[in-house]
Amino acid sequence: MKARVYVTLKRGVLDPQGKTVCASLHQLGYREVTDVRVGKFMDITLGGLPRREAEQRLKAMCEKLLANTVIEDYRFEIYEE
Amino acid sequence: MKARVYVTLKRGVLDPQGKTVCASLHQLGYREVTDVRVGKFMDITLGGLPRREAEQRLKAMCEKLLANTVIEDYRFEIYEE
């Protein structure tokens, strides 16, 4: 079983990395770019759990480690390989 | 118009960040996790280009700046807001 976890900055939280990418794209001539926001994702391989339990445990992993829920949102999708 | 660009390490390239996350999940008791790979994505807002041209320019942005194509793969999807 695999899961993909997406972590993004909450709306309204400043994203200096995205601003830097945006400025660099402008310098390269891509003036049509008006905003960039950067996020990360994690592809997690999980063994031997029923789907329902896997969902609960993934939620806990996100809350405890994978996302900083003060400033970040997360979501995940589970799929079979 | 918006685009989401996904950047991942190529298959076979070591992912120390993923390994660290995996080890931390084990320490927290999530022994069912067997592998973690970390990637990033960028949500890009683009103004005033036909879709076909936007695709070509996004491809060039990825090759020039957004991905290190020696060790990273990229893909992107374009959608209307």
Report on the structure:
Two copies of one chain form a homodimer. Chain A has a single domain, classed as 2-Layer Sandwich (Mth169, Chain: A). By secondary structure, chain A is of the alpha+beta class. Chain A has a three-stranded antiparallel beta sheet with strand order 2-1-3. The first copy, chain A, is built from two helices and three strands. Chain A is elongated, with a radius of gyration of 16 Å. In chain A, 35% of the residues lie in helices and 37% in strands. At the A-B interface, helix 1, strand 2 and helix 2 of A face helix 1, strand 2 and helix 2 of B. Strand 2 of chain A pairs antiparallel with strand 2 of chain B, so a sheet runs across the interface.
Write a brief caption for the model.
Two copies of one chain form a homodimer. By secondary structure, the first copy, chain A, is an alpha+beta fold.
What does the oligomeric state look like here?
homodimer
Net shape of chain A: elongated
State the low-pLDDT regions of chain A, or none.
none
End-to-end gap of chain A: 6 Å
Which value, in Å, is the CA radius of gyration of chain A?
Answer: 16 Å
Rounded mean pLDDT score of chain A: 96
CATH fold category name of chain A: Mth169, Chain: A
What structural class do the secondary elements of chain A suggest? alpha+beta
